[in-house]
Design brief:
2 copies of one chain form a homodimer. The first copy, chain A, has 333 residues and is an alpha/beta fold. Chain A folds into 2 domains: 2-121 and 301-330, Medium-chain alcohol dehydrogenases, catalytic domain (Quinone Oxidoreductase, Chain A, domain 1); 126-276, 3-Layer(aba) Sandwich (Rossmann fold), CATH 3.40.50.720. The first copy, chain A, contains 9 helices and 15 strands. In chain A, α2 packs across α3 and α2 (126-139) packs across α8. The radius of gyration of chain A is 20 Å and the shape is globular.
């Protein structure tokens, strides 16, 4: 049995290109004691993994070449040497960009048969949980408040905005494309969506937030974070989730003006978080999110690509803002 | 009866100079109904008031010329048209840089006869309360943790470090002068003090914080904030109190690198605060601080200057780091 893999061939200098990756074939090994062999159904491409290719070590570890590209995937158990999994189970875990992977049982989570496996890459997976905990626990929005979210049409952002609507907030999304902006307001219930690439972005944001911003969910850092700081209300909260504006480069910009001056003047709390810190509460969160999906209050946008060979290009395109919702690479046909 | 005043004659372009001020003489008016006439004993010069002279409006309001320079002072009531004050009472309030001032009664706080009035410009005044609430409420230090404070020999910083020691923390002060550093460690009990002007500052800070930094009390912003971000531990707290590195200029720098990337990776909370938000708890805080002063656990450093004419130069010098502790201008001889 042969495994197809996408290998990190070289670390990007400047912007990432598809040439930083190569396709490879390898034998599929036998799972050892307590291990599980998984055949990938699909994996998600997320901007945050770009940080793992940057010069300095991030929470994802120091960058490395010659290894399979990392990523969260869903798959089917082929063979299990652990009592908690059996052949045919659907699972989610750190499959990476490859057709088969072997895991310690504790690295995998079983997906209940009631759910579609790919939902565990979107609203019921890391992206949905990040939106849920980042907005509700870090942002602490109250009904009637204004919530602003950047990369609003992205895998996390489009869920953040919808949860904020469920909680009774006014929701302003920032994205880089008018077509995306239209989806956010027409299909997902955002009150306003503004395009940060417009020349009059700052004025549009001001018009979109007549009562200021109480909670800003930051997926981008950079200029959009800077614009949010000027719109924040006294006592506002900024949930720092990601820094996509600074990933695809080897010379990240300095922080925005107004840090820390505006934090002081407006008594703003800026708090970084990682979803893994909330692992003890995933089950309740998934239950609530699944309920919203079922009732139609929450819609998951998925942006599908087919086949391993398409993954590097799809990642490059995602970093340029090409995705609408969660970008998933399907290997199941 | 004549009043001597320091007037803001022009707004600074670039760095503040004494020529931005002029001395003036005016008649002392009669206090109206509910008003109190106060003769200034002394006032404090604090870096934060420099922000009020910058181009954009801060919490201190938009900059303005032709008015008396603002500042907190202590004084003696000369005449009172309000039942809560009587001639001879010592009070603290927004006297500004002048010999006499008239206030609505509610703008003044009576100083108990048990205390020295000038202590209400230092440890029992806004500076001490800022240190107290910023460290304890925003920073939330626990015994055994490492607390770092910038402008550590300043009016707020030298109190922050001592309160952190009282709470059982390891305390690292950052200042810009070896003589100040020596006072912090020899006289005030700081564990280490490092000089940010040294060429090897970053390495010295690293050596001074072998277990990282759990709480950083930021009085400066800029490069020192940037250096702190790299030393913060997971779950660290940054209390944003002031931005003295960016006040004395009309072209403030961008924020430090690592905002928001390091906040995410290390789940850091950065929170701006103003002491006025804690006004409901001033009384308890003053009681606790007074206890520490009495027991000798807390020493207040005061840096005195005599006479109104010296105030502008003393402010310019303070912005260049010339003060050790709270800089006070005495008008009482």
């Amino acid at each position: 049995m042969k495994n197809q893999q996408v290998i990190i061939d070289s670390l990007p200098k400047g912007k990432l290109t598809a040439a930083n990756y190569r396709l490879a074939e390898a034998d599929v090994a036998e799972p050892g004691a307590g291990e599980v062999l998984v055949k990938t159904i699909a994996f998600a491409i997320t901007a945050g993994t770009r940080a793992g290719l940057q010069g300095s070590a991030s929470y994802a570890g120091a960058p490395q070449t010659g290894i399979v590209m990392n990523g969260t995937g869903v798959g089917t158990v082929i063979k299990s040497n652990d009592g908690s999994f059996g052949a045919g189970d659907s699972v989610v875990g750190p499959t990476g960009w490859q057709a088969y992977s072997i895991h310690k049982a504790k690295a995998l989570t079983k997906i209940p048969t009631a759910h579609q496996p790919v939902d565990y890459l979107g609203p019921l997976g890391v992206n949905g949980l990040t939106a849920y905990f980042g907005l509700l626990e870090v942002g602490q929005p109250k009904a009637g408040e204004t919530v602003m979210v950047s990369a609003a049409a992205g895998s996390v952002g489009h869920i953040v905005g919808q949860i904020a609507k469920i909680k009774g907030c006014r929701v302003v999304g920032v994205c880089g494309d008018d077509a995306k902006a239209n989806v956010l307001t027409s299909d997902l219930g955002f009150d306003v969506a503004v395009n940060y690439k417009d020349a009059n972005y700052r004025q549009s944001l001001k018009d979109a937030t007549p009562n200021g911003v109480d909670v800003y969910f930051d997926n981008t850092g950079g200029m959009i974070l800077g614009s949010a700081l000027f719109r924040m209300n006294v006592g506002g909260r900024i949930a720092c989730c990601g820094v996509v504006s600074q990933y695809d480069t080897d010379s990240p910009e300095p922080g925005p003006k107004g840090v820390p001056g505006l934090l002081v003047n407006k008594r703003i709390t800026m708090r970084g978080f990682l979803v893994f810190d909330y692992a003890a509460h995933y089950a309740e969160a998934r239950e609530e999110i699944a309920g919203w999906l079922k009732s139609g209050q929450l819609k998951a946008l998925t942006d599908e690509v087919k086949g391993l060979a398409a993954a590097p290009g799809a990642f490059v395109d995602l970093l340029a803002g090409g995705n609408l919702g969660t970008r998933i690479v399907r290997l199941d046909g």
